[in-house]
UniProtKB/TrEMBL annotation:
<feature type="active site">
    <location>
        <position position="127"/>
    </location>
</feature>
<feature type="domain" description="Molybdopterin cofactor biosynthesis C (MoaC)">
    <location>
        <begin position="15"/>
        <end position="149"/>
    </location>
</feature>
<comment type="pathway">
    <text>Cofactor biosynthesis; molybdopterin biosynthesis.</text>
</comment>
<dbReference type="GO" id="GO:0061799">
    <property type="term" value="F:cyclic pyranopterin monophosphate synthase activity"/>
</dbReference>
<feature type="binding site">
    <location>
        <begin position="112"/>
        <end position="113"/>
    </location>
    <ligand>
        <name>substrate</name>
    </ligand>
</feature>
<dbReference type="GO" id="GO:0006777">
    <property type="term" value="P:Mo-molybdopterin cofactor biosynthetic process"/>
</dbReference>
<feature type="binding site">
    <location>
        <begin position="75"/>
        <end position="77"/>
    </location>
    <ligand>
        <name>substrate</name>
    </ligand>
</feature>
<dbReference type="InterPro" id="IPR023045">
    <property type="entry name" value="MoaC"/>
</dbReference>
<dbReference type="InterPro" id="IPR047594">
    <property type="entry name" value="MoaC_bact/euk"/>
</dbReference>
<keyword id="KW-0456">Lyase</keyword>
<protein>
    <recommendedName>
        <fullName>Cyclic pyranopterin monophosphate synthase</fullName>
        <ecNumber>4.6.1.17</ecNumber>
    </recommendedName>
</protein>
<comment type="function">
    <text>Catalyzes the conversion of (8S)-3',8-cyclo-7,8-dihydroguanosine 5'-triphosphate to cyclic pyranopterin monophosphate (cPMP).</text>
</comment>
<comment type="similarity">
    <text>Belongs to the MoaC family.</text>
</comment>
<dbReference type="InterPro" id="IPR002820">
    <property type="entry name" value="Mopterin_CF_biosynth-C_dom"/>
</dbReference>
<comment type="subunit">
    <text>Homohexamer; trimer of dimers.</text>
</comment>
<dbReference type="Pfam" id="PF01967">
    <property type="entry name" value="MoaC"/>
</dbReference>
<dbReference type="InterPro" id="IPR036522">
    <property type="entry name" value="MoaC_sf"/>
</dbReference>
């Protein structure tokens, strides 16, 4: 049985043992979007959402989520992240684009942390605006870049 598997010798789910892997610089970038009514985006940009600064709060939520990914995703390793950025960009007429970058030097990648950051930031935008726009959609959450580790470089098309 491979050393890098989510199953133990009895076939039960287990955390992958990464102790024999080399520590390397690892980076992951994920992106996604929240699509909404144009009027909702206008209110976000004008600071007219009753719950506060939507983009600022969503940014913070995404950063916090990246740091807590192992608490949310079963069998994810708890990681000491060296950098997390979450950028939210309003794109008129009807969307907020979200990008998260996560870095560390370690034995396992940070793809899940980047994806979690984008997803939680998007959910935060939804939560803060749902009273005025229940038709919002979270779309296209995906990994767009990964570097470091044994599998090397990945760039989405």
């Amino acid at each position: 049985m491979s050393d890098l598997t989510h199953f133990d010798e009895q076939g039960r789910a287990a955390m992958v043992d990464v102790s024999a892997k080399a520590e390397t610089a690892r980076v992951a970038v994920a992106r996604g979007a929240v699509v909404m009514a144009p009027a909702t985006l206008a209110r976000i940009e004008q600071g007219q959402i009753g719950k506060g600064d939507v983009l600022g709060i969503a940014r913070l939520a995404g950063i916090m989520a990246a740091k807590r990914t192992s608490d949310l995703i079963p069998l994810c390793h708890p990681l000491m992240l060296s950098k997390v950025t979450v950028d939210l960009s309003p794109l008129p007429p009807d969307r907020v684009e979200i990008e998260a970058l996560v870095k560390l030097t370690g034995r396992t990648g940070v793809e899940m942390e980047a994806l979690t950051a984008v997803t939680v930031a998007a959910l935060t935008v939804y939560d803060m605006c749902k009273a005025i726009d229940r038709g919002m959609r979270i779309e296209a959450v995906r990994l767009v870049h990964k570097s470091g580790g044994k599998s090397g470089l990945y760039e989405a098309e």
